[in-house]
Design a protein that fits this description.
The protein is of the alpha+beta class. It has three domains: 55 residues, no CATH class; 121 residues, no CATH class; 112 residues, Endonuclease, Chain A (3-Layer(aba) Sandwich), CATH 3.40.960.10. Helix content is 46%, strand content 17%. The protein is built from 14 helices and twelve strands. The strands form four sheets. Strands 9-10-11-12 form a four-stranded mixed beta sheet. A hairpin with a 4-residue loop joins β10 and β11. α7 packs antiparallel against α8 and α8 crosses α10. The radius of gyration is 24 Å and the shape is elongated. The N and C termini lie far apart (76 Å). The relative contact order is 0.07.
């Protein structure tokens, strides 16, 4: 029985109550299996095995929830908004991972369901694609939809990912945006499209850029290359103001884990990063400001530090 249900999980991400009943389980057995942790109820009537669920990240669990919603839909649906973004491996930073966004191609209103938000937007040719065996919105449509349900900062984070990974371009987004007529809640869409940048490589970098915009700092250049005396690139700084002689580095735990070399401790990695910073300052004569996740919640303070470096360099 389990073999058949595991095959369904492998193919669809979840199995449904009716499939468990057909496999020989009865409702009392299902309740007992869920209570014991052998099975996990993803949403009413949809299940996965507990051993597989335990190893999933929050975003992966959200993807399973989305699959359950699609399988249980009584009509054709397309994953959209943040649910579609998840299929492009977007970070989904601070997104609501309990709410599934579905769009009905027939533009009819479905019955209200807990944890499901149905949309009836007009679909154009090319809006719907297939990813990971599911119908989802194209990267362009997904990006524009994100501006309707997220604020500027959160939308920037997700769209920067789509751009950096090459799923779309700003030019393509602009082209699709021109056909957005009578979309509700689209007042900030144009602003977001002016702020996004494919050069940002992480949530922290994008949020730092948003901080600069919100604090009326000059727009920095993301991932600016630093060249040595021979013109060879020796480093890239997260954000740079070359004409003002300042660069910013975002210090997140993920950054040090990502750049740590084989056999190198985190302490060794931090020391190497300090040496890198010193070398950059020697080559450029610039000053460095470092910020952390906590600093992103102290925007005024960070902006003051950056402006102080601008003044110091000018002096």
């Amino acid at each position: 029985m389990d073999a058949h249900l595991r095959a369904l999980v492998a193919e669809h991400g979840v199995f449904l109550r009716k499939e468990a009943l057909a496999a020989g389980y009865h409702d009392h057995a299902i309740v007992a299996l869920v209570r014991s942790g052998a099975w996990v109820r993803v949403r009413r009537g949809a299940y996965v095995f507990g051993d597989g669920w335990a190893s999933l990240t929050a975003n992966q669990r959200y993807a399973v929830l989305c699959r359950a919603a699609v399988r249980q839909a009584n009509t054709e649906v397309v994953l959209s908004h943040t649910s579609s973004a998840g299929e492009y491996d977007a970070p989904l930073w601070e997104c609501d991972l309990s709410l599934v966004h579905l769009t009905r191609p027939d533009r009819r209103a479905g019955r209200a369901e807990a944890g499901i938000r149905q949309h009836r937007g007009l679909l154009m040719e090319g809006d719907v694609v297939e990813r990971n065996g599911l119908k989802v919105m194209s990267a362009e449509r997904t990006a524009l939809e994100l501006t309707l349900v997220l604020d500027v900062e959160h939308a920037m984070v997700e769209i920067d990912h789509l751009l950096h990974q090459g799923f779309t371009t700003v030019a393509d987004l602009r082209t699709r945006y021109e056909s957005m007529t009578h979309w509700p809640d689209s007042l900030t869409t144009d602003l977001v499209l002016r702020l996004v940048d494919a050069r940002s490589e992480s949530v922290g970098e994008t949020r730092a850029r948003h901080l600069c915009w919100a604090q009326h700092l000059p727009a920095p250049i993301p991932n600016y290359p630093i060249l040595d005396e021979r013109g060879v690139e020796i480093a890239r700084v997260d954000l740079a103001w070359p004409t003002l002689g300042v660069f910013l580095e975002f210090d997140g735990k993920e950054k040090y884990l990502r750049h740590r070399r084989e056999g190198e401790s985190v302490v060794d990695c931090v020391l190497r990063e300090k040496q890198r910073e010193s070398r950059i300052c020697e080559l450029t004569g610039w000053r460095c400001v470092r910020i952390t996740w906590a600093d992103l919640y102290r925007a005024d303070e960070v902006a003051g530090r950056v402006r102080a470096l601008f003044r110091a360099t000018a002096a």
